[in-house]
């Protein structure tokens, strides 16, 4: 990598610096720099000032400006004053990996059903070198619940899935793991987890206390193995470990020279990983007993396809509900059943896919788009960066493995251009190559997916509502339907002397509002009870209101004039999810003196529909592999 680009943290490997020192001659430098900016934004939870990006990447400010301008043109970031903010459309990169992987489409429903049945959080994870990445989270809504997100990277040794993936490691993978542990003793390269506790050093005066603790340790026999329980003093909890850790009790470890007295060091989290891996290989399951943080316990089993681990499913709980042993004893039989069902699903899908013709991607029209972007932005637009990121989107469902020709055809790029982009992405770890066939790696999920995977519909809509309000100089709102009421979840008001003042969270009856009517019109049996006359113009006859809803359904919008409040005029359009179901609505509201009903239809409605179209585009990308919260 060029010397003015700092290595990105969170790779989960300690060999990053060495790899970056040997940048292939044909690598695309602007693509390397652009990905570095995306990673810094991801590590910053999706928002960073431009000057902050300059400092964290080591790039010149002019380069940061050009990169963020290009990413904004692509729709991957939004420039908000002096800040760069990750935008939902960036998730199309992670979606390409998840679609090619197939597992979320095939197994998410099984994980969700298991979570509902057990009333515990359930996750699916894949291995990413010496770490694990989540590809699905089915969490329980509790005061104390999981904060992990799709795409989060965790160190393998501090998880339940880690030992299972490590059963398939060879010497090279173990060497990488040991190198990373030595280079990153605090797990700072894994922002999703608390830093690993530092080893505690102490001298002879404290030895009696340690002997007392060692004497209190208890030995159990499980699965024919002796397991010791050591006290982890750094976090104050019981930590189950195997024989290898028991062999390292402080009373038996060699002394380390200290100043005036001998110092001894306690084992740290993950020291017993090789022993846990051996036990997982024999048992076929693994436990995490508070390795990530106190109170968090998990039970994991591998899901295999064609003899290899495709992913690992985990049931995650808290010690207030289950101890690790109780989690295993209580839930392991049910987890085995769920894994068997998942493996059947994969076998059936594999059989069906073998008989299905290979899909080909439609050319993306990249050349036309980049040409227009270059003309609009001039030298601020970095064409090679846009082209390189588009290569990732060439992969997808039915296109998990592509050769160079197929990538070039899917993107519309010249073979030489596609080849250089693939070389760069392989160097950075986002694709692998074998026998001239390329595949995406889980690392693609590290490009913005974790912070964006928790984005709500209100957050997706917010910048679009602001832009619409600024263009029309009227109040704009987003609302959802709750029973027979609407609830405002997004709002941008104007600064007029006379304007519509409603706060987020406000609830109003649905029937006399434009927002409510576009959502009621999508229901097979809309609730039309207690139709009270709020103004002389309010429609209160159920038959007449049903006729109005039929017209709204046909025309795709609602215009309400003075039915909620005299002088208030509003026009609304529904927001639909990928399947076409209405999940929310957006309106423009004003005093009736501002525009006539005809002017609302002629001037406001086209702008409103265009805005909702952009919201839906972002929603469809964000909701492809997860449920987007409505509020």
Task: State the end-to-end distance.
Answer: 42 Å
Uncertain stretches of 5 or more adjacent residues: 1-20, 198-265
β-strand percent reads 15-25%
Strand order, main sheet: write it out: 6-5-4-14-13-12
Proportion in helices: 40-55%
Give the total of beta strands. Answer: 22
From the spread of the alpha carbons, the general shape counts as globular
Task: Give the rounded overall mean pLDDT.
Answer: 85
Radius of gyration over C-alpha positions, nearest whole angstrom: 28 Å
Explain the overall architecture.
The protein has 631 residues and is an alpha+beta fold. It has three domains: 29-95 and 362-452, Arc Repressor Mutant, subunit A, CATH 1.10.10.10; 119-192 and 272-355, Beta-Lactamase, CATH 3.30.450; 456-623, 2-Layer Sandwich (Beta-Lactamase), CATH 3.30.450.40. Helices cover 41% and strands 20% of the residues. It is built from 21 helices and 22 strands. Strands 6-5-4-14-13-12 form a six-stranded antiparallel beta sheet. Strands 19-18-17-22-21-20 form a six-stranded antiparallel beta sheet, sandwiched between helices. β4 and β5 (131-138) form a beta hairpin. The protein is globular. The model is unreliable at 1-20 and 198-265 (pLDDT under 50).
């Amino acid at each position: 990598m060029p010397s003015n680009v700092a290595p990105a943290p969170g790779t989960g490997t300690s060999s990053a610096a060495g790899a970056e020192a040997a940048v292939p001659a044909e690598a695309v430098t602007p693509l390397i720099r652009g990905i570095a900016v995306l990673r810094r934004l991801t590590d910053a939870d999706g928002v960073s000032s431009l000057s902050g990006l300059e400092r964290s990447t080591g790039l010149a400010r002019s380069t940061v400006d050009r990169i963020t301008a290009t990413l904004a043109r692509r729709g991957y970031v939004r420039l908000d004053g002096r800040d760069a903010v990750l935008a939902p459309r960036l998730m199309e990169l992670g979606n390409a990996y998840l679609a090619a992987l197939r597992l979320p489409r095939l197994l998410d429903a099984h994980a969700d059903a298991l979570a509902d049945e057990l009333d515990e959080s359930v996750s699916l994870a894949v291995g990413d070198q010496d770490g694990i990445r989540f590809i699905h989270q089915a969490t329980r809504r509790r005061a104390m619940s999981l904060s992990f997100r799709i795409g989060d990277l965790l160190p393998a040794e501090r998880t339940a899935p880690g030992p299972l993936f490590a059963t398939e490691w060879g010497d090279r993978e173990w060497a990488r793991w040991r190198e990373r542990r030595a280079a990153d003793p605090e797990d700072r390269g894994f922002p999703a987890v608390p830093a690993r506790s530092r080893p505690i050093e102490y001298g002879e005066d404290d030895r009696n206390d340690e002997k007392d603790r060692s004497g209190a340790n208890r030995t159990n026999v499980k699965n024919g193995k002796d397991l010791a329980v050591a006290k982890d003093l750094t976090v104050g909890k019981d930590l189950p470990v195997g024989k290898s850790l028991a062999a390292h009790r402080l009373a038996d470890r060699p002394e380390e020279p200290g100043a005036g007295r001998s110092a001894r060091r306690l084992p740290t989290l993950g020291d017993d990983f090789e022993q846990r891996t051996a036990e997982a290989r024999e048992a076929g399951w693994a436990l995490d007993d508070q390795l990530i943080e106190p109170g968090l316990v998990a039970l994991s089993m591998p899901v295999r396809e064609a003899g290899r681990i495709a992913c690992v499913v985990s049931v995650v709980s808290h010690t207030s509900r289950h101890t690790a042993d109780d989690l295993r004893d209580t839930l392991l039989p049910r987890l085995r059943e769920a894994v068997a069902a998942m493996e059947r699903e994969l076998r059936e899908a594999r059989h069906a896919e073998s008989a299905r013709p290979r899909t080909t991607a439609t050319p993306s029209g990249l050349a036309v788009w980049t040409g227009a972007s270059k003309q609009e932005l001039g030298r601020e637009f970095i064409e090679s960066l846009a082209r390189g990121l588009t290569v990732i989107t060439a992969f997808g469902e039915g296109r998990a493995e592509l050769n160079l020709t197929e990538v070039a055809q899917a993107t519309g790029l010249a073979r030489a251009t596609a080849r250089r982009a693939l070389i760069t992405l392989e160097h950075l770890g986002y694709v692998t190559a074998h026998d001239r066939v390329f595949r995406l790696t889980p690392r693609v999920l590290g490009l913005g997916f974790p912070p964006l995977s928790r984005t709500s519909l209100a957050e997706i809509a917010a910048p679009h509502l602001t832009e619409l309000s600024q263009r029309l100089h009227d109040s704009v709102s987003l609302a959802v339907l709750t029973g027979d009421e609407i609830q405002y979840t997004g709002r941008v008001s104007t600064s007029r002397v006379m304007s519509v003042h409603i706060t987020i969270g406000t609830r109003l009856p649905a029937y006399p509002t434009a927002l409510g009517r576009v959502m009621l019109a999508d229901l097979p049996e809309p609730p039309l009870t207690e139709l009270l006359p709020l103004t002389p113009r309010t429609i209160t006859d159920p038959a007449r209101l049903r006729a109005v809803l039929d017209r709204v359904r046909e025309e795709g919008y609602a215009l309400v004039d003075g039915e909620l409040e005299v002088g208030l005029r509003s026009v609304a359009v529904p927001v639909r999810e990928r399947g076409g179901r209405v999940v929310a609505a957006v309106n423009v509201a004003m005093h009736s003196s501002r525009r006539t009903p005809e002017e609302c239809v002629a001037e406001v409605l086209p702008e409103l529909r265009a805005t909702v179209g952009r919201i839906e585009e972002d929603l469809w990308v964000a909701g492809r592999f997860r449920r987007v919260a409505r509020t």
